[in-house]
Protein backbone atom coordinates (compact mmCIF):
# COMPACT_ATOMS: atom_id res chain seq x y z
CA UNK A 1 0.00 0.00 0.00
CA UNK A 2 2.87 2.40 0.64
CA UNK A 3 4.68 1.61 -2.63
CA UNK A 4 4.34 3.56 -5.89
CA UNK A 5 3.76 7.26 -6.44
CA UNK A 6 1.73 8.78 -3.60
CA UNK A 7 -1.72 10.12 -4.39
CA UNK A 8 -1.00 13.22 -2.33
CA UNK A 9 2.34 14.68 -1.28
CA UNK A 10 2.37 17.58 1.15
CA UNK A 11 5.82 19.18 1.17
CA UNK A 12 6.93 21.80 3.73
CA UNK A 13 3.40 23.20 4.06
CA UNK A 14 3.26 26.43 6.08
CA UNK A 15 0.10 28.28 7.09
CA UNK A 16 0.15 31.44 9.20
CA UNK A 17 -2.40 34.05 10.20
CA UNK A 18 -1.64 37.60 11.22
CA UNK A 19 -3.89 38.67 14.08
CA UNK A 20 -4.29 42.07 15.65
CA UNK A 21 -4.05 42.40 19.43
CA UNK A 22 -7.30 43.42 21.15
CA UNK A 23 -8.77 43.55 24.68
CA UNK A 24 -5.45 42.68 26.35
CA UNK A 25 -4.82 39.79 23.92
CA UNK A 26 -1.53 39.75 22.07
CA UNK A 27 -1.37 40.20 18.32
CA UNK A 28 1.19 38.75 15.95
CA UNK A 29 1.62 35.77 13.67
CA UNK A 30 -0.24 32.54 14.50
CA UNK A 31 2.02 29.67 13.44
CA UNK A 32 -0.88 27.29 12.72
CA UNK A 33 0.97 24.86 10.40
CA UNK A 34 4.77 24.93 10.26
CA UNK A 35 6.70 22.95 7.65
CA UNK A 36 4.49 19.85 7.48
CA UNK A 37 5.36 17.07 5.00
CA UNK A 38 3.68 13.69 4.48
CA UNK A 39 2.32 11.39 1.77
CA UNK A 40 -1.04 9.69 1.29
CA UNK A 41 -1.05 6.56 -0.85
CA UNK A 42 -3.85 5.20 -3.03
CA UNK A 43 -6.41 3.18 -1.05
CA UNK A 44 -5.05 4.07 2.40
CA UNK A 45 -6.50 5.94 5.34
CA UNK A 46 -4.13 8.35 7.05
CA UNK A 47 -5.40 9.36 10.48
CA UNK A 48 -4.45 12.76 11.92
CA UNK A 49 -4.64 13.30 15.69
CA UNK A 50 -3.61 16.05 18.08
CA UNK A 51 -5.10 18.33 20.74
CA UNK A 52 -7.57 21.07 19.86
CA UNK A 53 -5.63 23.92 18.27
CA UNK A 54 -2.78 21.71 17.03
CA UNK A 55 -3.51 22.74 13.42
CA UNK A 56 -5.42 19.72 12.07
CA UNK A 57 -8.23 21.72 10.41
CA UNK A 58 -5.83 24.38 9.13
CA UNK A 59 -3.72 21.64 7.56
CA UNK A 60 -6.82 20.10 5.94
CA UNK A 61 -7.90 23.47 4.56
CA UNK A 62 -4.37 24.15 3.29
CA UNK A 63 -4.50 20.88 1.33
CA UNK A 64 -7.66 21.98 -0.50
CA UNK A 65 -6.25 25.53 -0.92
CA UNK A 66 -8.87 27.20 1.26
CA UNK A 67 -6.92 29.30 1.86
CA UNK A 68 -3.76 28.62 -0.11
CA UNK A 69 -0.78 27.82 2.17
CA UNK A 70 1.79 30.57 2.73
CA UNK A 71 4.47 28.26 1.31
CA UNK A 72 5.12 24.63 0.46
CA UNK A 73 3.72 22.23 -2.12
CA UNK A 74 0.57 20.13 -2.23
CA UNK A 75 1.06 17.63 -5.04
CA UNK A 76 -2.23 15.90 -5.77
CA UNK A 77 -2.21 13.28 -8.54
CA UNK A 78 1.10 14.78 -9.65
CA UNK A 79 -0.06 18.43 -9.89
CA UNK A 80 1.00 21.10 -7.41
CA UNK A 81 -2.29 22.68 -6.32
CA UNK A 82 -0.49 25.64 -4.73
CA UNK A 83 0.54 26.95 -8.16
CA UNK A 84 -2.97 26.75 -9.66
CA UNK A 85 -5.57 29.52 -9.90
CA UNK A 86 -9.30 29.58 -10.68
CA UNK A 87 -10.57 27.00 -13.22
CA UNK A 88 -7.44 24.79 -13.33
CA UNK A 89 -7.58 24.63 -9.50
CA UNK A 90 -11.31 23.78 -9.54
CA UNK A 91 -10.62 21.02 -12.10
CA UNK A 92 -7.63 19.61 -10.17
CA UNK A 93 -9.67 19.67 -6.95
CA UNK A 94 -12.51 17.67 -8.47
CA UNK A 95 -11.01 14.45 -7.14
CA UNK A 96 -10.12 15.89 -3.70
CA UNK A 97 -13.16 16.43 -1.49
CA UNK A 98 -13.85 17.26 2.13
CA UNK A 99 -16.46 16.23 4.72
CA UNK A 100 -16.80 18.57 7.71
CA UNK A 101 -17.83 18.13 11.33
CA UNK A 102 -21.13 20.00 11.27
CA UNK A 103 -23.48 18.18 8.91
CA UNK A 104 -26.26 20.80 9.26
CA UNK A 105 -23.93 23.76 8.73
CA UNK A 106 -22.48 22.32 5.53
CA UNK A 107 -25.88 21.97 3.80
CA UNK A 108 -28.04 24.82 2.45
CA UNK A 109 -31.21 24.58 4.61
CA UNK A 110 -33.51 25.71 1.79
CA UNK A 111 -32.54 22.97 -0.66
CA UNK A 112 -33.98 19.50 -0.95
CA UNK A 113 -31.67 16.49 -0.60
CA UNK A 114 -31.82 15.68 -4.34
CA UNK A 115 -30.82 19.28 -5.19
CA UNK A 116 -28.00 19.23 -2.65
CA UNK A 117 -26.54 16.06 -4.16
CA UNK A 118 -27.06 17.36 -7.72
CA UNK A 119 -25.22 20.63 -7.05
CA UNK A 120 -21.63 19.37 -7.38
CA UNK A 121 -22.62 17.62 -10.63
CA UNK A 122 -23.96 20.92 -11.99
CA UNK A 123 -20.91 22.79 -10.71
CA UNK A 124 -18.64 20.54 -12.74
CA UNK A 125 -20.86 20.69 -15.84
CA UNK A 126 -22.23 17.13 -15.79
CA UNK A 127 -24.69 17.52 -18.68
CA UNK A 128 -28.20 16.10 -19.09
CA UNK A 129 -30.92 16.43 -16.46
CA UNK A 130 -31.87 12.75 -16.75
CA UNK A 131 -28.24 11.63 -16.36
CA UNK A 132 -27.83 13.82 -13.26
CA UNK A 133 -31.07 12.54 -11.69
CA UNK A 134 -29.91 8.95 -12.26
CA UNK A 135 -26.58 9.76 -10.63
CA UNK A 136 -28.31 11.41 -7.64
CA UNK A 137 -30.37 8.20 -7.16
CA UNK A 138 -27.22 6.08 -7.38
CA UNK A 139 -25.41 8.29 -4.87
CA UNK A 140 -28.28 8.29 -2.35
CA UNK A 141 -28.49 4.50 -2.67
CA UNK A 142 -24.74 4.26 -2.10
CA UNK A 143 -24.92 6.22 1.16
CA UNK A 144 -27.91 4.24 2.39
CA UNK A 145 -30.71 6.82 1.87
CA UNK A 146 -33.76 5.68 -0.10
CA UNK A 147 -34.07 8.32 -2.88
CA UNK A 148 -37.90 8.04 -2.97
CA UNK A 149 -38.09 8.78 0.78
CA UNK A 150 -35.25 11.28 1.27
CA UNK A 151 -34.87 12.98 -2.14
CA UNK A 152 -37.56 15.61 -1.41
CA UNK A 153 -36.64 16.27 2.23
CA UNK A 154 -34.83 19.36 3.46
CA UNK A 155 -31.96 19.25 5.99
CA UNK A 156 -34.20 20.14 8.97
CA UNK A 157 -36.23 16.97 8.24
CA UNK A 158 -33.12 14.79 8.65
CA UNK A 159 -31.23 13.45 11.67
CA UNK A 160 -27.54 14.32 12.16
CA UNK A 161 -26.48 10.95 10.75
CA UNK A 162 -28.74 11.34 7.69
CA UNK A 163 -27.37 14.87 7.10
CA UNK A 164 -23.83 13.51 7.22
CA UNK A 165 -24.83 10.84 4.66
CA UNK A 166 -26.03 13.63 2.36
CA UNK A 167 -22.72 15.49 2.87
CA UNK A 168 -20.89 12.25 2.01
CA UNK A 169 -23.03 11.75 -1.12
CA UNK A 170 -22.06 15.28 -2.21
CA UNK A 171 -18.39 14.58 -1.51
CA UNK A 172 -18.33 11.37 -3.56
CA UNK A 173 -20.54 12.70 -6.41
CA UNK A 174 -17.56 13.53 -8.61
CA UNK A 175 -15.73 10.25 -7.97
CA UNK A 176 -12.95 11.63 -5.78
CA UNK A 177 -9.70 9.76 -5.20
CA UNK A 178 -9.20 11.30 -1.75
CA UNK A 179 -11.72 12.45 0.86
CA UNK A 180 -10.57 14.54 3.81
CA UNK A 181 -12.82 13.95 6.82
CA UNK A 182 -12.36 16.72 9.39
CA UNK A 183 -13.98 15.47 12.61
CA UNK A 184 -16.67 14.08 10.28
CA UNK A 185 -18.21 11.77 12.89
CA UNK A 186 -17.30 13.72 16.06
CA UNK A 187 -20.71 15.33 16.52
CA UNK A 188 -22.68 12.08 16.01
CA UNK A 189 -23.70 9.79 18.84
CA UNK A 190 -21.86 6.51 19.18
CA UNK A 191 -24.33 4.27 17.34
CA UNK A 192 -24.69 6.63 14.35
CA UNK A 193 -20.92 7.17 14.42
CA UNK A 194 -20.39 3.44 13.90
CA UNK A 195 -22.87 3.40 10.99
CA UNK A 196 -21.14 6.33 9.24
CA UNK A 197 -17.71 4.74 9.82
CA UNK A 198 -19.03 1.54 8.21
CA UNK A 199 -20.22 3.63 5.28
CA UNK A 200 -16.73 5.16 4.87
CA UNK A 201 -15.24 1.66 4.91
CA UNK A 202 -17.80 0.37 2.40
CA UNK A 203 -17.05 3.30 0.05
CA UNK A 204 -13.33 2.70 0.41
CA UNK A 205 -13.80 -0.91 -0.71
CA UNK A 206 -16.33 -0.16 -3.49
CA UNK A 207 -14.83 3.04 -4.92
CA UNK A 208 -11.14 2.57 -4.00
CA UNK A 209 -11.14 5.82 -2.00
CA UNK A 210 -8.31 7.09 0.16
CA UNK A 211 -8.98 9.14 3.28
CA UNK A 212 -7.29 11.68 5.48
CA UNK A 213 -9.24 11.05 8.67
CA UNK A 214 -8.87 13.86 11.19
CA UNK A 215 -10.22 13.43 14.72
CA UNK A 216 -9.27 14.24 18.29
CA UNK A 217 -10.57 10.79 19.36
CA UNK A 218 -7.44 8.61 19.40
CA UNK A 219 -9.27 5.28 19.76
CA UNK A 220 -11.50 6.04 16.79
CA UNK A 221 -8.56 7.05 14.60
CA UNK A 222 -6.71 3.84 15.44
CA UNK A 223 -9.75 1.81 14.42
CA UNK A 224 -10.01 3.31 10.93
CA UNK A 225 -6.43 4.22 9.96
CA UNK A 226 -3.60 2.37 8.23
CA UNK A 227 -1.13 5.06 9.29
CA UNK A 228 -1.43 7.86 11.80
CA UNK A 229 0.15 11.34 11.93
CA UNK A 230 0.37 13.12 15.29
CA UNK A 231 0.22 16.93 15.19
CA UNK A 232 1.54 19.14 17.95
CA UNK A 233 1.36 22.93 17.76
CA UNK A 234 1.40 23.07 13.98
CA UNK A 235 4.06 20.43 13.41
CA UNK A 236 4.19 16.67 12.85
CA UNK A 237 5.53 15.06 16.01
CA UNK A 238 5.28 11.50 14.74
CA UNK A 239 3.95 9.48 11.81
CA UNK A 240 3.83 5.73 11.34
CA UNK A 241 1.77 2.56 10.95
CA UNK A 242 -1.25 2.79 13.27
CA UNK A 243 -0.53 -0.46 15.09
CA UNK A 244 3.14 0.38 15.81
CA UNK A 245 2.48 4.00 16.73
CA UNK A 246 -0.13 3.07 19.35
CA UNK A 247 1.78 0.06 20.68
CA UNK A 248 5.22 1.67 20.80
CA UNK A 249 5.02 5.46 20.40
CA UNK A 250 8.36 7.15 19.72
CA UNK A 251 7.53 10.75 20.58
CA UNK A 252 6.90 11.77 24.22
CA UNK A 253 3.90 13.82 23.05
CA UNK A 254 2.27 10.76 21.42
CA UNK A 255 2.92 8.74 24.58
CA UNK A 256 1.38 11.51 26.72
CA UNK A 257 -1.67 11.70 24.43
CA UNK A 258 -2.17 7.93 24.66
CA UNK A 259 -1.79 8.00 28.44
CA UNK A 260 -4.43 10.73 28.64
CA UNK A 261 -7.18 8.41 27.39
CA UNK A 262 -8.64 5.46 29.31
CA UNK A 263 -7.03 2.18 28.27
CA UNK A 264 -5.76 -1.18 29.35
CA UNK A 265 -2.48 -1.60 31.14
CA UNK A 266 -0.57 -4.08 28.95
CA UNK A 267 1.28 -5.41 32.02
CA UNK A 268 -1.77 -6.21 34.17
CA UNK A 269 -4.59 -6.35 31.56
CA UNK A 270 -6.60 -4.09 33.91
CA UNK A 271 -8.15 -0.70 33.18
CA UNK A 272 -5.54 2.02 33.51
CA UNK A 273 -6.32 5.42 34.99
CA UNK A 274 -5.88 8.16 32.37
CA UNK A 275 -3.03 10.61 33.06
CA UNK A 276 -3.85 14.15 31.87
CA UNK A 277 -1.18 15.94 29.82
CA UNK A 278 0.82 18.27 32.03
CA UNK A 279 0.54 22.01 31.49
CA UNK A 280 -1.23 24.03 28.84
CA UNK A 281 -0.14 23.91 25.20
CA UNK A 282 2.05 26.96 24.46
CA UNK A 283 0.60 29.71 22.26
CA UNK A 284 1.04 29.28 18.49
CA UNK A 285 1.64 33.08 18.52
CA UNK A 286 4.90 32.52 20.34
CA UNK A 287 5.99 28.86 20.15
CA UNK A 288 8.95 27.78 22.32
CA UNK A 289 12.41 27.76 20.73
CA UNK A 290 13.80 24.39 19.61
CA UNK A 291 11.23 21.67 20.26
CA UNK A 292 7.73 23.11 20.68
CA UNK A 293 6.87 20.36 23.21
CA UNK A 294 9.81 21.04 25.49
CA UNK A 295 7.89 23.08 28.10
CA UNK A 296 5.69 20.01 28.80
CA UNK A 297 8.10 17.17 28.04
CA UNK A 298 9.45 15.00 30.88
CA UNK A 299 12.53 14.09 28.76
CA UNK A 300 13.50 17.66 27.82
CA UNK A 301 17.23 18.52 27.79
CA UNK A 302 19.25 21.66 27.01
CA UNK A 303 19.52 20.60 23.38
CA UNK A 304 15.71 20.60 23.07
CA UNK A 305 15.63 24.38 23.68
CA UNK A 306 18.38 25.09 21.17
CA UNK A 307 17.75 22.84 18.22
CA UNK A 308 14.47 22.14 16.44
CA UNK A 309 14.07 18.37 15.97
CA UNK A 310 13.24 17.10 12.48
CA UNK A 311 11.33 13.93 11.53
CA UNK A 312 13.72 10.97 11.46
CA UNK A 313 12.69 7.45 10.41
CA UNK A 314 13.48 5.12 13.31
CA UNK A 315 11.67 1.97 12.16
CA UNK A 316 10.13 1.01 8.84
CA UNK A 317 7.84 3.90 7.88
CA UNK A 318 7.78 5.11 11.50
CA UNK A 319 9.29 8.56 12.12
CA UNK A 320 9.44 10.98 15.03
CA UNK A 321 10.69 14.55 15.45
CA UNK A 322 12.47 14.23 18.81
CA UNK A 323 16.09 14.45 19.99
CA UNK A 324 15.49 11.81 22.68
CA UNK A 325 12.75 9.48 21.36
CA UNK A 326 11.31 6.73 23.49
CA UNK A 327 13.25 3.96 21.72
CA UNK A 328 16.54 5.61 22.78
CA UNK A 329 18.12 5.60 26.27
CA UNK A 330 16.42 7.89 28.78
CA UNK A 331 18.38 11.09 29.28
CA UNK A 332 18.94 12.27 32.88
CA UNK A 333 15.88 14.40 33.77
CA UNK A 334 16.50 18.12 33.69
CA UNK A 335 12.99 19.50 34.01
CA UNK A 336 12.09 23.12 33.44
CA UNK A 337 14.33 23.61 30.38
N1 LIG B 1 -8.40 32.16 10.39
C1 LIG B 1 -7.63 32.13 11.47
N2 LIG B 1 -7.09 33.25 12.00
C2 LIG B 1 -6.30 33.21 13.10
N3 LIG B 1 -5.96 32.08 13.75
C3 LIG B 1 -6.46 30.94 13.26
C4 LIG B 1 -7.32 30.87 12.11
N4 LIG B 1 -7.65 29.57 11.88
C5 LIG B 1 -7.04 28.84 12.83
N5 LIG B 1 -6.33 29.65 13.66
C6 LIG B 1 -5.50 29.23 14.80
O1 LIG B 1 -4.64 28.23 14.32
C7 LIG B 1 -4.44 27.24 15.31
C8 LIG B 1 -4.82 25.87 14.76
O2 LIG B 1 -6.24 25.81 14.66
P1 LIG B 1 -7.00 24.56 14.03
O3 LIG B 1 -6.37 24.24 12.73
O4 LIG B 1 -8.45 24.88 14.01
O5 LIG B 1 -6.69 23.40 15.07
P2 LIG B 1 -7.43 22.00 15.31
O6 LIG B 1 -8.26 21.70 14.11
O7 LIG B 1 -6.32 21.03 15.51
O8 LIG B 1 -8.24 22.17 16.55
C9 LIG B 1 -5.26 27.65 16.53
O9 LIG B 1 -4.43 28.35 17.41
C10 LIG B 1 -6.30 28.57 15.91
O10 LIG B 1 -6.75 29.51 16.87
S1 LIG C 1 12.97 16.94 21.45
FE1 LIG C 1 13.30 17.04 23.64
S2 LIG C 1 11.58 18.25 24.43
FE2 LIG C 1 11.04 17.60 22.38
S3 LIG C 1 9.87 15.76 22.66
FE3 LIG C 1 11.98 15.12 22.32
S4 LIG C 1 12.88 14.97 24.37
FE4 LIG C 1 10.96 16.12 24.56
MG1 LIG D 1 -10.33 21.22 13.93
What is this entry, summarized?
The protein has 337 residues and is an alpha/beta fold. The protein has eleven helices and 14 strands.
Write the layout of secondary structure elements.
Blueprint: E1 8-19, E2 28-40, E3 45-49, H1 56-63, E4 71-76, E5 79-80, H2 86-92, E6 96-99, H3 113-123, H4 129-142, H5 147-150, H6 160-172, E7 178-182, H7 190-207, E8 210-214, H8 218-224, E9 227-232, E10 235-241, H9 242-247, H10 252-259, E11 263-264, E12 271-272, H11 302-306, E13 312-315, E14 318-320
Parallel strand pairs: 3-8, 3-9, 6-7, 7-8
Antiparallel strand pairs: 1-2, 1-4, 4-5, 9-10, 10-14, 11-12, 13-14
The structure holds adenosine-5'-diphosphate, iron/sulfur cluster and magnesium ion.
Amino acid sequence: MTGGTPLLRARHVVQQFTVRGAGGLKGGVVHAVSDVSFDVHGGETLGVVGETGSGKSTLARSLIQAPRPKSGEVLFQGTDLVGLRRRPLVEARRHLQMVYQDPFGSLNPRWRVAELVEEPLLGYGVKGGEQRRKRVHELLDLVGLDPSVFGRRRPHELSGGQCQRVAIARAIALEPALVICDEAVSSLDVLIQAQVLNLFEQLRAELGLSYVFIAHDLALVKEVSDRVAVMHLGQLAEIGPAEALYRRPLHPYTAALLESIPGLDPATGRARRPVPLRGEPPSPLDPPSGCRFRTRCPRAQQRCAQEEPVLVERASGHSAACHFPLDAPVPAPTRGV
